[in-house]
Amino acid sequence: MIRSLYTAATGMKAQQLSIDTVSNNISNVNTAGYKKQRAEFADLMYQVMEYAGTSTSATTISPTGMEVGLGVRPTAIQKIFTQGNFKETSNQLDIAITGNGFFQVELPDGTIGYTRNGGFKLDANGTVVTADGYPLVPQITVPADTTQFTVGADGTVSVIQAGQTEANIIGQLELADFINPADLHSLGDNNYINTTASGDPIVGIPGLNGIGQTRQGFLELSNVQLVEEMTDLITGQRAYEAGSKAITTSDEMLSTVNQLKR
Description:
Shape: elongated
Strand order of the largest sheet: 8-7-14-17
Helix content: 10-25%
Distance between the termini: 21 Å
Radius of gyration: 27 Å
Largest sheet: 4 strands, antiparallel
Number of helices: 2
Mean pLDDT: 92
Number of domains: 2
């Protein structure tokens, strides 16, 4: 069987994965805090027909050799944690992170999740929670008679209550950072959990030790650039078509062989 059939098939499968990844990026272009992904590939093993340096005579050697590649394989889907653009919302519960770091939230099973989506809400008890109802860690509870809710650049949370003019500090936001955030495990719903590859979280006060600051009244949008994604989509489509053409050409060659007569 012609080797190129299988080689081209690996290329088509690789481009399908690339297009799947780009499609997910485009789908989340308006998802707050979303970080785009990039499919990465490596060439497969090579079939050696002749090793470089093989003797061709008593005094000469082959300068190049012959190695035939067997296709491509996916190696990773890389998360790219560049800063997204900011959108001013003037909502007191919208908080963006400028720089490195993640908000910490308590997931239903009690583990700590991490997110860049700062579109928070209040539950029936006045607790600051995500859109899915996951409370912030450390937990922040806003008094029922609060008239003004303020989050400082250093994560200090203060409120002014009815009948008062002085602000009272009710809590402190803490952010988590990672040595290798690209290897956080995605749970969906804008949440991540740490892995062995990402390292343990480094928790600290916003603005200290390399951790980003908090900005109230802003949301961080996704870092997806539609122009780049559309370019990658076209490139992947053309490469897929080229792989399909290679399979068609190989099939035509086999057909020619099958039609040979004595």
